[in-house]
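Per reviewer request, we include the raw input and output of the structure prediction for the construct analysed in the revised manuscript.
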Amino acid sequence: MGELRLSDYSSDIALLSFLLLVLSALAVPWLEVSVSSLHDALYYFLLPWVLIIPLHEGLHAIVARLFGAKVRFGVTSLGRLIIAPYIAVDAPISARKYAVVSFAPLVLSLTALALAWLQHSVFWALVYVFNTVGMVGDFLTALSLLRMPSDAKVFDDGIALKSDSEMPAPYPGWFSTMIKLAFVVLFVLILIFGRVEVVVEKGL
């Protein structure tokens, strides 16, 4: 029986999250967050996650249920720093269907991106960016599933994705090296060309 544990890729997931944060923000180049009060901090950095987590996991669950799977919710950790909510699919479904389940939260990202542009909304722009970053593990899962035979059956026990067939790695070993290199290059570019302003006001 094959299995895929995202915890085995925790360091790559952390680096990919940073890369995806920067790349997804390029879709909303006007995004600028100004925090001048506790209310602003909660509105921009807490409320989006209050909205994202149930919608993100809910989309996984809805699509899985449409495919006839039984689902349950839980929370796990990837490494020491990454806390990740998840849905577990207890009844086996095909690898292709599970890939669709993995991609389901893209609906939230695309909807939030559309609302961000239509309303020129910082809040919806952040929902789009944060949700897209939160899909890193989903993307890795889908990459592995799409490399499997279409008739392979998979299920999720909450710790690992398991199958009656061999589960390939999401990407070859050299790609992990490329992720680290891309992170270093991007970090250096930000240090050279980036500009960060921190304004502390008494009201915060």
